[in-house]
Amino acid sequence: MKRSREGDSKAFADLSKNISDISHSYFSSKHRQGRIINIDDVDDLTNNVYVAFAEQFQNIEILENWLRRVLFLTFIRWYKKNKSRTFVELNELIFVSEEPDVESVNIDAATALNFLSKLSDEKQEIVKLRFWGGLKFSEIAERMNKTEAAVKKMFYRTLIEIKEKLD
């Protein structure tokens, strides 16, 4: 920190990289927890912390305390600003019609559960965690050691498979 203040550009670059890495790690953990939905927001928040550091580094006394405070306040401000937004995951294959599909509402539960039991263990786990466990795709992906995209794809394909078998 001292060398950065004295004008050592390499020291400043190293310090800046550490600040960015720590910030990205912090906001990525919030993304994994489901508190930050969009991964682009992780990068934006990381950049906000870096800009604050670049503007204030001459006046920072204890870097660790400053960084903890700025990370927390940056996240809280962003969260309060964005919590009123509603995030909806859309899939091209699924749409909502204005008139409810009476047949899909009145599916025989025993038939659906019977068919579900015939699916692979992996497909069963995804469907059960999503519907009964109430988990987000990111949480299911983490639990199953898969990418979120792979889990979503398998989930929606499984729903289509179940619908086709029930029709």
Pick out its properties.
single chain; about 170 residues; mainly alpha; about 0% strand
Proportion of residues in extended strands: under 5%
Instruction: Please count the beta strands (DSSP E, at least 2 residues each).
Output: 0
* Class based on secondary structure composition and strand pairing: mainly alpha
Major sheet description: none
The unreliable regions are 86-106
Termini separation (Å)?
67 Å
- pLDDT average, as an integer? 80
Please compute the radius of gyration using only Cα atoms.
Answer: 23 Å
Helix count equals 9
Percent helix, as a range, is: over 70%
Shape, per Cα inertia axes? elongated
The helix/strand series, from N terminus to C terminus, equals HHHHHHHHH
Structure description:
The chain has 167 residues and is mainly α. It is 70% helix and 0% strand. The protein contains nine helices and no strands. The protein has helices spanning 2-5, 9-32, 39-56, 63-82, 102-105, 109-117, 121-131, 137-144, 148-166. Helix 8 packs across helix 9. The radius of gyration is 23 Å and the shape is elongated.
Give me a quick take on this structure.
The protein is mainly α and 167 residues long. It contains nine helices and no strands.
Strand and helix map with partners:
Elements: H1 2-5, H2 9-32, H3 39-56, H4 63-82, H5 102-105, H6 109-117, H7 121-131, H8 137-144, H9 148-166
Helix pairs in contact: 2-3, 3-4, 8-9
